C-alpha cells in the first residue's frame, strides 16, 4: 500500500482533563501519520489547568484546538465536523496508541475513494508495549458485516477468505470515513433525537447509539468494506479510562473517549 501525501485527512480527538495522555498520544499520531497531509482537531472540554497544558501542542502547526462548551463527547465530535476542511476524517481516542502502518490504511482509503475502512483494536494496559505487525487488507461483503457486528452478545462469526473465523470490531477509532458521509450521519442522529428526550438522553448523555449508526450507515452506503488484520490500534486501560469496559466515569457507556 503506497502512502498518499496529496489528499488531506483530519483526525478529531476529543479530550477532557487528560493532558498527560493527550500529549503522549499526539506524539504517537505524528509518527503514525508520517508522510500524510493531515490536520488534527482537538475538541477540548478540559478545565483551565489542562487546557493550558494542551495549548502547548499548538507548536505543531497541524494542530487546532477547539474549546468545547456544550457537554457530551458525541456532541463534541459532531461540532468538530464544521471545522474540517479535508475530504476524509478519522475519530481517535486521546489516550491510545496507533500502529505506524495506520497511515497506509488512510492512504488506501483516500487513494481508492473508499467510504469506509476499519480494523481491530487491542485492549491493553496503558503502560504495556504492543508489537504491531504488518497489516493485511481484506474486502468483506456487506451481508457478512451485518452478521458479524460484535456489539451485542448475539454477535456471530464470519469466515473470511484465507483467514480463520473473525469477530468484527465496533470502535470508530479504527476506521476512516469521508466527511460527506459523517455529515449525513450527523444529520440523521440529530433528526432521530430531535424532540425526543429519551433518545437524546441515551445518544448524547450516555453516548449509546451514534457509533453503531456509523457502522450501519456505512454498510448500507459503501460498495465494499475494507478490513485490516491483525490490529491497528491499542485501546488503553487505566484507572481513568472512559469506555464501555473500564472506569466508573460519567461516560462509562460508549466508545468515544
Summarize the structure.
With 257 residues, the protein is α/β, with parallel strands linked by helices.
Supply database-style keywords.
single chain; 257 residues; alpha/beta; 8 helices; globular; disordered C terminus
Description:
The protein is an alpha/beta fold and 257 residues long. The protein is 31% helix and 25% strand. The protein contains eight helices and eleven strands. It has helices spanning 19-32, 48-54, 73-80, 102-111, 142-146, 179-193, 197-205, 210-221; strands spanning 8-15, 37-44, 63-67, 88-91, 97-98, 116-125, 136-140, 158-159, 165-166, 175-178, 225-237. Strands 1, 2, 3, 4, 5, 6, 7, 10 and 11 form a nine-stranded mixed β-sheet that branches. β2, α2 and β3 (63-67) form a beta-alpha-beta unit. α6 (179-193) crosses α7 and α6 (179-193) crosses α8.
Secondary-structure blueprint:
Elements: E1 8-15, H1 19-32, E2 37-44, H2 48-54, E3 63-67, H3 73-80, E4 88-91, E5 97-98, H4 102-111, E6 116-125, E7 136-140, H5 142-146, E8 158-159, E9 165-166, E10 175-178, H6 179-193, H7 197-205, H8 210-221, E11 225-237
Parallel strand pairs: 1-2, 1-4, 2-3, 6-11
Antiparallel strand pairs: 4-10, 5-11, 6-10, 7-11, 8-9
Estimate percent helicity: 25-40%
Uncertain stretches: 149-165, 243-257
- Can you count the helices? 8
Which structural class is indicated by helix and strand composition? alpha/beta
Largest sheet: 9 strands, mixed
| Gross geometry | globular
Integer-rounded radius of gyration: 17 Å
Q: β content, as a range?
A: 15-25%
CA distance, first residue to last residue: 29 Å
Encode the helix/strand succession as letters.
EHEHEHEEHEEHEEEHHHE
How many beta strands in the DSSP annotation?
11
Average per-residue pLDDT, rounded, comes to 77
Amino acid at each position: 500500500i503506497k502512502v498518499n501525501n496529496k489528499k488531506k485527512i483530519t483526525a478529531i480527538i476529543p479530550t477532557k482533563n487528560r493532558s498527560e495522555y493527550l500529549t503522549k498520544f499526539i506524539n504517537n499520531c505524528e509518527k503514525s501519520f508520517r508522510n500524510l497531509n493531515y490536520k488534527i482537531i482537538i475538541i477540548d472540554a478540559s478545565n483551565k489547568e489542562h487546557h493550558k497544558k494542551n495549548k502547548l501542542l499548538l507548536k505543531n502547526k497541524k494542530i487546532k484546538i477547539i474549546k468545547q462548551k456544550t457537554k457530551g463527547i458525541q456532541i463534541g465530535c459532531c461540532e468538530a465536523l464544521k471545522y474540517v476542511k479535508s475530504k476524509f476524517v478519522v475519530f481517535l481516542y486521546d489516550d491510545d496508541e496507533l500502529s505506524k502502518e495506520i497511515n497506509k490504511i488512510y492512504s488506501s482509503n483516500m487513494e481508492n475513494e473508499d467510504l469506509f475502512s476499519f480494523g481491530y483494536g487491542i485492549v491493553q494496559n496503558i503502560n504495556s508495549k504492543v508489537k504491531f505487525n504488518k497489516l493485511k487488507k481484506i474486502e468483506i461483503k456487506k451481508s457478512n458485516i451485518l452478521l458479524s457486528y460484535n456489539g451485542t452478545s448475539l454477535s456471530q462469526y464470519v469466515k473470511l477468505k484465507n483467514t480463520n473465523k473473525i469477530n468484527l470490531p465496533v470502535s470508530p477509532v479504527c476506521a476512516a470515513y469521508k466527511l460527506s458521509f459523517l455529515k449525513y450521519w450527523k444529520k440523521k442522529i440529530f433528526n432521530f433525537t430531535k424532540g425526543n428526550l429519551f433518545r437524546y438522553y441515551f445518544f448524547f448523555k450516555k453516548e449509546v447509539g451514534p457509533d453503531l449508526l456509523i457502522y450501519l450507515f456505512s454498510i448500507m452506503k459503501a460498495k465494499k468494506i475494507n478490513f485490516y488484520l491483525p490490529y491497528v490500534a491499542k485501546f488503553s486501560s487505566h484507572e481513568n479510562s472512559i469506555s464501555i469496559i473500564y472506569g466508573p466515569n460519567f461516560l462509562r457507556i460508549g466508545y468515544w473517549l
